[in-house]
Structure formats: C-alpha cells, structure tokens
Amino acid sequence: MIDPQIRMRHIRCFLETARLGSLSAAADALHVSQPAASKTIKELEDILGVALFDRSGRRLTLTRAGSLFQRHAGPAMVDLRRAQDMAQSAPKDLTRLAVGALPTAATDLLPLAALRLRQEMPECLLRVTTGPNWMLLSQLREGALDMVVGRMPPAGTTEGLSFRQLYSERVVPVVRPDHPLLSREWALTELDDYPLMLPPSGAVISQSVRTFLHSIGLGAARPAFENVSLAFGRKVVQRSDTIWFISHGVVREELEIGTLALLPLANDLLGGPVGVSMRSETFQTAEQALMLDILLETARQHPTRLTS
C-alpha cells in the first residue's frame, strides 16, 4: 500500500531533480522556489526513511535507493499521464514514441529511420529529444523516453537497461578544407599548435579522445572548445584553424560535400558501438518494436558502419 503521506508534488519534484541533477533547476522547471523544492525532497526522504540523493558533489546524484525509486516512479507517472489523456478523450488512433538521440545518431541515422517509421506507421507521433548522455539515460529510466539511440553507455550506467548494437563508428579529427596541416607532412605533436575542440567530459566519446591524446604525449593539452554540436562545431572549424575530434557520423555529410575535411592520422581512433538503449524490464510496444527493426535495417545500409 502506498504511504498516504506521499503526494504528487513529491514525485514530480523528485523526478525533475533526478533528471536535471540540480534542485535549483528542478525548482525553475516546476515554477517553485528552491527552498520549497528542497523541503519537498526532504519530506519524501523522511517518509521513505532513506536518502534519495548524494549531496557531496556539485551535482546531485541518485543513491542506490534513489535509482530504484526513479526506475519505478518514472514509468508510473507516465502511465498516469497516459491514463489522464485517455480519460480526456485523446484521439484513439494516435500513438506516441519518445526517442532520445545522441549527436552521432541525430544527424543521419535517426532522421532516416524516422522517415521510414512515418511511412509504415503514420498514426504514430515521434517525439525526439536531444541532450547529453546522462540526461537521456535518466529520462529513459524514469519512463519519459522509450529508447535512446547513440553510442553505448559507459560502464556503470547501464543498470536496468539493455543495449542493442547497430554498428561501430570511428572518432575522427576534422578541419576546414584549406587547413595548413592538409598541405604538408606533419607530426602528431603539432596538434598542440592549433586550437582543439574536444567532446565535453559528459560525452560518451570523451575518454577515448583524451586517451588518444595522452598516448601521443598531449595528455596535458587544454582544449579551446568543448562541443559535440554540429551547428556550433562546423561554424568554428570553417572559420579558424581549430581541429575538432568528433564521431564520424556527426560530420559525415559535411565531409562528403567538402565543407569540412578529414585530418589523416597514421593511427585512427578506435571505433565504438552505436546502438539502442531500452529499459530491460519493460513490455515492448508495437511502436518500439517497429522502430527497433527500422533502425537495424537502416544501420545495415549506414555509410559509417564498420562492423555489425
């Protein structure tokens, strides 16, 4: 039996705080004051008799108990919203699919799959959310997303999730087409002579890029920019000598049409799995099953695929 002291405001505040990792951000999203949000979380922890967040770092992170509560409370809230929609006579023929997209999938793979889904299931509304890996996985666990398409989540973040690999993809350095290094032979240590744009620490490919730089003696190199967005990266690289380390799929079309150029390396960065993350203990809907099949078929024709 649910404790009668638990109110909807407790659940909403908890889920927003877990999703955003910040009480102040959660308070803004809920249009309440930060003290009110903090009090609400404390009330919920007192009712449950456990700490739901680890407050020792700059960001609030879920404790073991908090992760378990999020895994079940999030989908429960989604079911309540769906029940409300149905009770208010939402169109019976309309279905929904919520997909999170990391940059490596958002620019090519997912748009192609989305168009195919539209052809085969036109009554399904596809809602796509982009953002950092930690945020999308949090939304997946709480039920706000049905699947996340992108690189395989880092070890230690996959509890309660399953991962289906679609293909493997390289991380590459890209530059403007007339970059000085493209016209002559050069040493790897010369990378430090130019501004570097690296993936931020929250990006899945961040560690592999920094490991590569360390292996060539540039472990202490300080980036000028941290970014995985195509729109920002393309503009900065085209107008400067910046060298951008990014997943090949993000810039594939730019490389094909010549607006960006691949900087050749004697030893390419290792590829990494790209695929679909889903909740492992959730019934798979017809929309989810079809989208997964479409993604698998699209990946087999994907030009950046290395292995299946």
UniProtKB/TrEMBL annotation:
InterPro entries: HTH-type_LysR_regulators, LysR_HTH_N, LysR_subst-bd, TF_PcaQ, WH-like_DNA-bd_sf, WH_DNA-bd_sf
HTH lysR-type domain ranges (all copies): 6-63
Sample GO molecular function, one term: DNA-binding transcription factor activity
Record GO biological process: 3,4-dihydroxybenzoate catabolic process; positive regulation of DNA-templated transcription
GO cellular component: cytosol
Keyword vocabulary terms for this entry: DNA-binding, Transcription, Transcription regulation
PROSITE patterns linked to this entry: HTH_LYSR (PS50931)
Family, similarity comment: Belongs to the LysR transcriptional regulatory family.
Name the UniProt record assigns to this protein: LysR family pca operon transcriptional activator
Organism: Donghicola tyrosinivorans
Phylogenetic lineage: Bacteria, Pseudomonadati, Pseudomonadota, Alphaproteobacteria, Rhodobacterales
